């Protein structure tokens, strides 16, 4: 997985996915690469995600092209209450633009 940052008027084609359903304690590690706005790799991080997300990613994966997803629990900093509040207010637009 890679995390890309898009700001303001940038509107890449993407799918929105909410994966909070299922057993929140049934998690597996996933490695994510992050890039800056110029596409330069910044770091690799490992985080825990639900098994449901792994299954969804496996089903959505394409062999011949990248699939861009906005995934709530990864796209929103879950430790930052201010950011969570701001993103929740944008959820209608996020899903409408997906």
From TrEMBL:
| Domain Heterokaryon incompatibility residues, every copy | 14-98
What is the protein's given name?
A: Heterokaryon incompatibility domain-containing protein
Native organism is Tothia fuscella
Q: What is the lineage of its organism?
A: Eukaryota, Fungi, Dikarya, Ascomycota, Pezizomycotina
């Amino acid at each position: 997985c890679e995390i890309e940052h898009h700001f303001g008027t940038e509107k890449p084609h993407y799918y929105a996915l909410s994966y909070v359903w299922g057993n929140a304690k049934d998690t597996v590690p996933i490695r994510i690469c992050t890039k800056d706005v110029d596409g330069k790799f910044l770091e690799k991080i490992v985080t825990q995600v639900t098994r449901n997300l792994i299954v969804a990613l496996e089903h959505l994966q394409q062999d011949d092209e990248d699939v861009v997803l906005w995934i709530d629990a990864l796209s929103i900093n879950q430790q930052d209450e201010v950011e969570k509040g701001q993103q929740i207010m944008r959820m209608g637009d996020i899903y409408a633009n997906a």
